[in-house]
Structure prediction request, 152 residues.
Amino acid sequence: MPTIRQVIYISKAAYEFSASELQELAAVAARNNTLEGITGALLFIDNCFIQVIEGDERAMSHMLTKLKADPRHHDIRIIADQLEESRHFSDWSMGLISTPDEDRPKVTRELRAASEITSDENAFATNMPMPHTAAMMQRLYETDSILQQARS
Prediction:
């Protein structure tokens, strides 16, 4: 029986974030998410955020309320909200993902397509309309996990 709620959303940044601002944002999110039992990954590309967050229902409801009130971004569009049997990013309280150059065109296309799905922030997609982006995020996470295990 699925017990983990996973939400994937995209949003537009309120301003152009520098690399150091993104690192700080991810570090603060990681500390807060650890306390709440939330895991996930964050991608910033073309002045947009794509984030996967996962956790129990209470923590996720609280997190979504905080995200919607955060002035650092706007036009939040939830593109997937589903229950999963296990976490996809269990070792990352908040992993910051950089897009490899070869993936940028596909990610940008999928981001634009997902942005046009709906303007209703409460409308949930049943399937992630960004398969390449999701696969790339998962692949980078798995690569990081393998590297972490090798260093141990």
Remarks:
- The radius of gyration is 15 Å.
- DSSP finds four helices and five strands in the chain.
